[in-house]
Amino acid sequence: MSSQVVATVGGVPIGVDEVDAREAALRLGRRAAALPRAGTSEGRQLRRWLTQLLVTERVVAVESAALGVTPDAAPAEDELLPDESARLEIGSVAAAAFADPLTRALFVHVTATVEVCDDDVADYHARNPRRFAPRRRASVPALDEVRSAIADHLLAAARRRAFRVWLDARRAALVELAPGYEHPGDPRQPDNTHRH
């Protein structure tokens, strides 16, 4: 007997059994006590999030194969997502997918041509003059003293943004979700609690 399909990626199905297995692994893990109870609204939202992670992993695999990307020499996760702000910028599903070196290698490939210009660096410094000043320094550092730190910061943010946009577009092109497995933030699904 075949498993109920929760999504397809490029026409290839993902079964409910895969979501069940991922949820079971979480419920056996060290953070199990923090998870919502199964069958509740929050528990269904967890399953939707797990579905998003599974389809993202599948999109990464499909796109990596098409682009000839392998996980060899992938940077460490904390090089690309050094803090909670970076994880929030890229989104929780993509951030979770970064546990896989293939996702990190694909990120490097997709964002290889992203650049920031000198004007962006100077504008950032003008708006945030003390952002990269050494601790205990009262005066504002000159742009030349902090240029490389600002450029690195802006480039990392631009690369995360570019990858997020690219990944969203690839998911939109390749993924079909079954009813009940919509994105947790989709306002059309009944368990959505995000309100403005």
Compact overview of the structure:
This protein is mainly alpha-helical and about 200 residues long. The protein has helices at about 15-25, 40-65, 75-80, 85-90, 90-95, 100-110, 120-125, 145-175, and strands at about 5-10, 10-15, 175.
Care to describe what's here?
- Helices cover 55% and strands 6% of the residues.
- With 196 residues, it is mainly α.
- Strand 1 and strand 2 form a beta hairpin.
- The mean pLDDT is 92.
Name some characteristics of this structure:
elongated, about 200 residues, three-stranded antiparallel sheet, mainly alpha
Shape: elongated
Oligomerization status of the protein chains: single chain
- Radius of gyration equals 20 Å
Q: Spatial order of the strands in the main sheet?
A: 2-1-3
Averaged pLDDT: 92
Beta-strand residue fraction: 5-15%
Structural class: mainly alpha
Tell how many strands the DSSP assignment holds.
Answer: 3
Q: Number of helical runs?
A: 8
What is the CA-CA span between the terminal residues? Answer: 43 Å
Q: What is the chain-wise order of helices and strands?
A: EEHHHHHHHHE
Residues in helices, as a percent range: 55-70%
Topology:
Elements: E1 5-9, E2 12-15, H1 16-27, H2 41-67, H3 77-80, H4 84-90, H5 92-97, H6 101-110, H7 118-127, H8 143-174, E3 175-177
Antiparallel strand pairs: 1-2, 1-3
